[in-house]
Amino acid sequence: MTTDSTATLQSAILTVIDPFSQKAIGEVADILALNVENAIVKLKLAFRYPIEGVKGELSDVISQALVDVPGVAMADVEIVWRVERANSLDDGSPLSTVKNIIAVASGKGGVGKSTTAINLALALAAEGANVGILDADIYGPSIPLLLGVKEGTRPEVQDEKYFKPVVAHGLQSMSMGYLVTEQTPMVWRGPMAGGALQQLITQTLWQDVDYLIVDMPPGTGDIQLTLSQKVPVSGAVIVTTPQDLALLDAKKGVEMFRKVSVSVLGMVENMAVHICSSCGHEEHIFGAGGGQKMADLYSVPLLGSMPLDISIREQADVGNPSVSADVDSDISARYRLIAHRVAGTLAADAAEKVASAPVISVEDD
Question: Same structural domain for residues 209 and 309?
Answer without folding.
Answer: yes
